């Protein structure tokens, strides 16, 4: 995938989740479309992203 970040053990780019959320879709919609990604992976990614954002503005 040329350095594109993907969910571990899948070929699903992280950007795909962000695109879904930006379009107003739910996490459940994303998971339905990409069953190789687990809810735990999505939550872990969002938690880490949240920490990064808070660290940048703190």
Offer a concise description of the structure.
It holds the Pfam family DUF433. The chain has 58 residues and is mainly α.
Polypeptide structure, described:
Helix content is 60%, strand content 0%. The protein has one domain (14-57). It has 3 helices and no strands.
Task: Show the helix and strand layout.
Elements: H1 14-22, H2 27-33, H3 39-57
Work out the helix count. 3
Q: Biggest β-sheet: count, sense, barrel?
A: none
Helix content: 55-70%
The end-to-end span amounts to: 33 Å
Low-confidence stretches: none
User: What is the ordering of alpha helices and beta strands?
Assistant: HHH
The radius of gyration over CA amounts to 12 Å
Tally the beta strands.
0
Global morphology: globular
Category from helices, strands and their pairing: mainly alpha
Mean pLDDT: 95
Number of domains: 1
Strand content: under 5%
Protein name: DUF433 domain-containing protein
Organism: Microcystis panniformis FACHB-1757
InterPro entries: DUF433 (IPR007367), Homeodomain-like_sf (IPR009057), WH-like_DNA-bd_sf (IPR036388)
Pfam families: DUF433
């Amino acid at each position: 995938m040329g350095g594109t970040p993907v969910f571990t053990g899948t070929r699903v780019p992280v950007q795909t989740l962000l695109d879904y959320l930006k379009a107003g879709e739910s996490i459940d919609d994303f998971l339905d479309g990409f069953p190789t990604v687990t809810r735990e992976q999505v939550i872990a990614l969002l938690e880490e992203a949240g920490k990064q954002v808070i660290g940048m503005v703190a």
